[in-house]
# Entry
Amino acid sequence: MSDKGTSYRVGGSYSIPQELKNSILEETTSGNAEEHSDVLQERMKQRTIYNKEDDYHKRRHDLKKKRDIDQVDDQVNETTQIVKRKKKSRWDVQSYVMPEESKATVQEMNEIDNIPSGMNLKYFKASDKIHFQLILKRDSEVNMSEEEQKRYKYLVLLLKVKNGSTQIRRDSMKQLISKCDTFGPKIIFDCTLPILLDRSLEDQERHLLIKFLDRLLFKLGSSLRPFAKDVLAVLSPLLIDEDPTVRVTGRDVISNLASATGLVTMLQVIRPDMENEDDYVRNIAARLLAIISRPLGINNIIPFIDAACHSRNSWRSRHTGIKSIGQISKLFGIAQLPYLNSMMQCVSNGLDDEHTSIRMLTANTIATLAEDSYPYGIESFNIILEPLWRGLRKHRGKMLAAFVRCLASIIPLMDTEYAGYYTEELLHIVSREFYSPDEEMRRAILIVLQKCAKVETVTPRYLREEIGPIFFKNFWNRRVALDKNLNKMVTYTTVVLAEKMGSAYIVEELLKPLRDDSEPFRFMAIHAVDRVVQVVGTTELDSRLESRLIDALLIAFQDQKDGDPVIFRCFGTVAESLGIRMKPFLSPIVSAILNQLRHKDKIIRQNAADLCCILIPVIKECGEIEMINKLNIILYESLGEMYPDVLGSIIKVIGSILSVMDFKVLQPPINQILPSLTPILRNNHKKVQLNTVRLIGCVAHKGPDYIPPKEWLRVCFELLELLKSTHKKTRVAANATFGEIAEAVGPQDVLVVLLNNLKVQERQLRVCTAVAIGIVAKVCGPYTVLPAMMNEYKTPETNVQNGILKAMTFMFEYIGPMSQDYVYFISPLLEDALVDRDLIHRQTAATVVRNIALNCIGVGNEDIFIHLLNLLMPNVFETSPHVIIRILDGLEALNYAVGPGIFMNYIWAGLFHPAKNVRNTFWKLYNKIYVGNTDALVPHYPGLQDEENKIEELDWVL
# Structure
């Protein structure tokens, strides 16, 4: 053999005989086979292609190097055993077997089972082994010291809070809060804070632990002070989290920490971070100073910040102090006004600071203070006007942008005379910077134009002649259209300028972008036109400009390649604003729409239908009835559209036509349109279903007599399937349409369909049917529905009876004060339901009682409500969460119906019952009544026999 590599022979043996090698491998693997065997892993191995091959073909995987040519002849001469490859058959495929538990799953379950105290955890992660080692040791508590026993008990409760079920978590958190003085802050924070710093902690777990800390802070009080630094180290990263909810939670917890520990402790903790070299740490320190100023008061924090802003030893300290002023301004808003003078004193020297970053930060902070103080506080800014003006004259680049933005924010606070002077000077400075490629400067220019355009001394003529041309030349281009944030700022600035310059000038300048080949640029112009017309209107536009605008919008619509709705919205805004002046342009627009409706691209057809839907009210306003009928005929012929998105848009247009047209002149007639829509209800697409149901509801509302009753019943049967739609809007529309159809053809036939629907097994369909019955009762009157419902309640079927009760819930909620006419009528049914064995019966009946009682307060039906109260009160000890909520709501409503005096006679005995569970139940009910009837309860408190505590005024009867 060659020394360069090992040679292999397929038919020969290696360094030892193959049989011996196989036997050795079998002996080594069989020893621990029982310990390491995993049924799932073995089955997976058996199903691999490699395992199904014979031994001869398996050896090819060992040929990792090429063989020498000389060895091939040796192999031919040797005696080799020819192995016939087994022919595979389809019967060799194994059938599916239910998978057994894998070793990993079993190991995880064993880890949870090994945890003592029967904690019933939902899960136990690998990271929990590190933080809860003491629990896993399973040492007897007798062998532990007193400190270890406390730590052990605390970890057990904390693990339940972190990984337990909802009820276990609540109970454990209550125990931790009540026993926090026993555990002490050292154990609490030594065990909790490392868990919060764990990178594998999930959002839900972090939320639970932070909520626990929040509740704990007030309980521990001043004992927190030695641990304030550690707690802040854990909580401060929440202030810069991406999730706004997490940031708000962090602010609340830190505010509570500041209230518990006091001002001195918090400042001692934050002070070292203000001079930290890392900008990340200084940023958090500034935010912390702003947050603690809310519970501790700005006036108490300002002296410390003032000292930091005027520090001579460290520029970082000055930087952090000024940044904290900006954070306070953002946090307090207009509430900062009482402290504005002090805050301006803190930052006044920053505009002349030797460090560039401090000067820029000071300018931005003053801009924030001015914006949050608008329209008050100009006196406080007088001290910085002179250094600010000097900076405007000597700075360039980003520094100049910051100073420009700062002065632009102060100008709206000034009187008219001073605002006019500074605006003129500032616009003179800005006009030479319009060509600047610096992004910060461009944003600053836009802010200046937004602020200065509202100043009275700036005339529209000056803006048109001096500002308008260079603004549109430098900011309305394709590059800006591709920058999302700058795009929005330019559009908003254009709208602000339009308020001063008028819509005619702005629209004329936007005509060229509307015709541009770049689609983002066109959309930017369309957004601007839409908002300008909404704010300013089109009264200034002459006929020539109107024609050019409509022409440009039509070209933009025809060149559109996607389904962005902005073009339709803009078209609708312009058409609505023009009103009757739109009439000369309707013919070419409708021709373009009809042409697009025949296009082969489905998106273009959908866009044409959407635009047509927006223009229908304007066409009707212009009196073009023939045009609408022509569109309706073509759209009716397009109901065979195969793409559901396009079909939904077409049906929406037909619905829009029916809502504005008189059915007497409509073509094709309504009795021809509706039968064609009924089969479309079977289409499962959300958009098609929703628009079809709304269209049918419109027909039922405006012209029910045009459709024969048999056709309406056919529609009802189709609508039944939509009651269980997964789309909520479709279900709501179907229920409303049922009411319209019932009003059209009478409730009897519709009610038969709905009552039969209560016998199905699907709960969602039964609930939607109950809602529909309630709507029918509201539309047609309860007297037309109640006899049939009470007769149906006799059916000895749980689903039907529950459905009737649910329908009554909605019915009495809808009809309101009319309920008083039917209280005695349905009382036998409610008696039966409130004493029924089925829990759901009593739950739903309690909701019916609540709705009736709330609608019958003070109408003189106290006798029947006392009777219902006698039936409902025994259910107060129910343990099911859903049931007890409905029972308590029903009892609270009965309290309003019968009065607190009578109702409290049922409560007094339970409040002082010897059994704890009974007391808890009645105190929960009493608390509800106390919140709603605090003053009315006073005369009904039991009298005291003790002469010392007796209050004679309570015995007076007025």
Notes: Confidence is low (pLDDT under 50) at residues 1-14, 32-37, 59-81. Residues 602-621 form the longest helix (20 residues). Residues 145-261 form one domain.
